[in-house]
Amino acid sequence: MTTNLDNRLGSLAPAALSLFRIVFGLLFTIHGASKLFAWPVDSGGGAVPVGTWPVWYAGVLELVLGLLILVGLFTRIAAFIASGQMAVAYFWQHQPNGLLPLENGGEPAVLYCFGFLLLAAIGGGAYAVDAARNKT
């Protein structure tokens, strides 16, 4: 019975990986757009002024890397950089407020970090621009 379930779910792995990449990329893009443009949701009192360290630069990275990951273009390198950005965000912004992510509000940063690390290791999936580029 479990072998049958494993075979069924295994056949869905390429699509599931692509869906994971698309959702992660979209959420990261929205996170960056929120910082830079206060759109689609104003999450912190308006758009961050241009050049404000480090928030504006983080927003630019989140927007650009999120879009690359969303479409699956240069997925591995974009995800590796995004993973590093989330690690820096955790240690600079959250970890000084407490040891554990649950107490310092850093759970999203940790989840993003390891999700992007996974994408850097295994790629963007079958339905990514990278996959189409590699076929030609």
Note poorly predicted spans. none
| End-to-end C-alpha gap | 39 Å
Q: How big a fraction of the residues is strand?
A: under 5%
Helical/strand content category: mainly alpha
Instruction: Kindly state the percentage of residues in helix.
Output: over 70%
Mean pLDDT comes to 93
Task: Please tell me what the overall shape is.
Answer: globular
Main sheet record: none
Tally of DSSP β-strands: 0
Keyphrases for this structure?
single chain, 136 residues, mainly alpha, 7 helices
Question: What does the model show?
Answer:
Helix content is 73%, strand content 0%. The protein is mainly alpha-helical and 136 residues long. Helix 3 packs antiparallel against helix 4. The model has no long low-confidence stretch (mean pLDDT 93).
In short:
73% of the residues lie in helices and 0% in strands. The chain has helices at 2-11, 13-37, 55-71, 75-94, 101-104, 107-122, 129-135.
Q: How would you summarize the topology of this molecule?
A:
Layout: H1 2-11, H2 13-37, H3 55-71, H4 75-94, H5 101-104, H6 107-122, H7 129-135
Helix pairs in contact: 2-3, 3-4, 4-6
